Amino acid sequence: MNPADTEGADRRSKRSPLLTRAPAPVYRSVMSVIDFHAHAFAESISQRAISRIEGLSGITAVLDGTLGSLLESMDAAGIERSVVLSIATKPAQFAPILSWSRTIGSERIIPFLSVNPADPRAAENVRVAAEEGFRGLKFHPYYQDFDLDGPSMEPVYGTMEERGLICVAHTGFDHAYPFVRRADPARVVRVLERFPRLAFVATHLGAWRDWELAGRHLPGANLWIDTSYSLEFLPAEEARSLILRFPPDRVLFGTDSPWADQGKSLALLRGLSLEPAREQRILSGNARDLLGL
Questions:
Q1: Would the pLDDT of 237 be above 60?
Q2: Exposure string for 83-112, b = 16+ CB within 10 A, e = fewer
């Protein structure tokens, strides 16, 4: 839920008090935490982008969408690093996403790019991402208007597989769109059958609001899932049961910030009473392995 398309009302929104306090010192805990699913925008477009997505989805953002507010949220929650995911809702947005992402990478921020499958240069732009050292790309079938296993994505997946890039894809339904199956578990499985070496992350515990099918079709598949924007909706025992169906090394902690509160998402994960070694892998170990940190 983070399209870069910023057309629409430019209304002023009120955000967390995190934005007005002095920056907190960088937190370091014994058990480090990596948020594998966060979003931010360039300051010049953040207000318009947040307003537009709020209007589409009916969700109120927790932060103002800037990188500064994300870093302050990370400090407050005790999160070491965040993977910042962009979404190119139009082909022309690859260039500005690339330019901005070049400036934000740091020890704490790991930017992922995005290409639009309607772009004739989509596969070439994947090569650009790899050559510039980015670790992966993000896709959203609803905001980018494609089916997850559709033909427009084949050259993109193929090039990502060839270059060893991580594919983070929105899976399941989405608040802002009719519940039409464009990114359901069956489509995920078909992608993995065609591209068995693709490092694929199915977000939102495999399929947002489609968790029964996620638990039926995705465990054992060659993929990772993240916990983003899901623990807030599932009863704790159901979330725990779903997570335990996947291998310990295939679950990543994610929040979907600014659409979820990083601290609250972290508390929900820690409240599942997972075995400590498994929890540690989810909070950071699996992300370190996948990202090569």
A1: yes
A2: bbbbbbbebebbeebbebbeeeeeebbbbb
